[in-house]
Amino acid sequence: MKFVQSKQTLAALAVIVFGFAGVFALSGFVEKARPPLPAGFEDEDLALQGARLKGFSLGFEGLLADWYWMRALQYIGAKVIRDRETNDNFNLENMSGLNPRLLYPLLDNASTLDPRFVAVYSYGAVILPAIDRRQAVKLLEKGIANNSNEWRLYEQLGYIYWRLDDYERAAETYGKGAKISGAPPFMLMMASKMKSAGGDRETARAIYEQMFNESPDRQVKENAALHLLELDSSEELDAIRSALQSFREKTNRCASGWREVLPLLQTIKLPRNKSFRVDKAGNLIDPSGTPYILDKEKCDARLDEKTTKIPLK
């Protein structure tokens, strides 16, 4: 009897062992035969939606909102870190290549569970325009509907409309925000500027200086500082190209190096009493400290896309 039981036990063990071996072999085959998936497809879809959880979380909506909020920060942070490990020219202005398809649902869930969670809307205003501006507008409109007394949300939405070249809506949004108690005079000024000269550099400079000086968010300040450098560079490039053209008219050739045009540049006054900068090698450098590229064939100058820290359009 014991012998029969032992044979049955060994047979069962053999079945289990061979079964596991078959599973591993089949898993390996499936893994090798599986077609490649689009980047970011490995992201797991959200199992639970904030709208469905609301009212069934026994008063813990705020805690759940915090969880979605923290997950959103970790989610996009991990993607940025992973991208920077393989991409030296990370573009803060266009992060669509990261395929962060869950960022908006995470922020939307957090704001649904806690509609007055203003930090969620403000974070979306900073990050989402670099991914999908329509989602950014949608999230901020939701934020304003739930927090109509927060003038900063109007400022952020007005900024996004401005980046979309929708100056009419930008003016309307800044104007509404200007009526809120505690809103700075800047809001009314921007409502007026949007109607008259929404796309000029001085309007852009006023927006970014306000963002840099007033925003409590570090990422907003960093982004504004980079855009201010971009505006400085645009003014410099206008002057440099003018000098290169003058040199060409006088000599009937393009400049072969920066030293040939430096005397002409010294006669040009930059806005706000700023000056051109030259490194030890005699190169003309942009506001981020990277040498401009001199195109000796086209008599032109441009930013070095590979090394400059200035946002490129």
What does it look like?
By secondary structure, the chain is mostly helical. 61% of the residues lie in helices and 3% in strands. It contains twelve helices and four strands; from the N terminus they run ααααααααααααββββ. It has helices at residues 2-33, 50-53, 61-86, 103-113, 118-127, 133-146, 151-163, 167-178, 185-197, 201-214, 218-251, 258-265; strands spanning 277-278, 284-285, 293-295, 300-302. A two-stranded antiparallel sheet has the order 1-2. Helix 3 runs antiparallel to helix 4, helix 7 (151-163) packs antiparallel against helix 8 (167-178) and helix 9 (185-197) runs antiparallel to helix 10 (201-214). The longest helix is centred in the last third of the chain and has 34 residues, at 218-251. The chain is globular and about 75 Å long. The mean pLDDT is 83.
Key descriptive features of the protein:
mainly alpha, globular, two-stranded antiparallel sheet, 12 helices, single chain
SSE diagram, text form:
Blueprint: H1 2-33, H2 50-53, H3 61-86, H4 103-113, H5 118-127, H6 133-146, H7 151-163, H8 167-178, H9 185-197, H10 201-214, H11 218-251, H12 258-265, E1 277-278, E2 284-285, E3 293-295, E4 300-302
Antiparallel strand pairs: 1-2, 3-4
Helix pairs in contact: 3-4, 4-5, 4-6, 5-6, 5-7, 6-7, 7-8, 8-9, 9-10, 10-11, 11-12
